Structure prediction request, 226 residues.
Amino acid sequence: MTVPEFVPLDFVRLDESEMVARARDFYGLMRRRRSVRSLSSEPVPRECVEYAVRTAASAPSGANRQPWRFVIVDDTRLKREIRVAAEAEERENYKRRFPPDWLEALSVLGTDWHKPFLEDAPYLVVVFKQSYGVAETGSRVTNYYVNESVGIACGLFIAALHTMGLATLTHTPSPMGFLARLLKRPSNEKPYILFPVGYPAADATVPVIARKNIEDVVQWNQGTGS
Prediction:
C-alpha cells in the first residue's frame, strides 16, 4: 500500500466575532435562495459557470474518489433535444406515473410537465454520478459513498451559483436515461441532477412557501459537564 504524503493544513483561524458575522451574512444570503423555473436567455459569463463547477468539485468524497462528472450544455439544438425528451417523460409522470398524493404535494408549487427553462437557460449543467471508476488499464475502480459525495457537490454548486447572483433549480426528470444517451456518457455514469443556469426572467415568480423553523430541524443534546 502506498504511504500517503501529508502537508500542513492551510487554515486561518478567525476571531469569534468574525466567525459569527460571516455565519450570519452567509445565512442571510442563502435564505433568499429560491428554485427558479422561469429563466432569462440572457448570456451568462462562462467563467461563472466554470467557477461554480470548480467549487462543486472541491466537495469531500468517499476515499477521495470524486465520483462526479459535470457536463455543460450551451448548444441550442442539444438543449432543444433535452427539453423534448424531458417533457416526454414528465408528461407521462404527471398523467400516469405519479400517485395522487405526489401530485397533490406538487400542486402547491405550480409545476407541470412543461419545462421551457431547459431551452431558455443559457447553460444546462448535467451532473452524472460515476457508479464506479475506470483505471487506465480499463479495470473497474470501486467508488464509495457515491450518492452522498455527489449530493454534497451539488449542494456546493447551488450555493456557488446563488452567491454570484445566478439562479437555478434541481431538475430530476424520471427516468433520466435519455441524458446519458444524448450526452454520450459511458456506462459507468448515471444522470443525477440537471441544473438549468441563468438569470431569473424579468417576470419570474416563485410560490409562497414556508421553511421549517430551526426548532423543527435541530436537536441539541447538551451535556451537563463533569
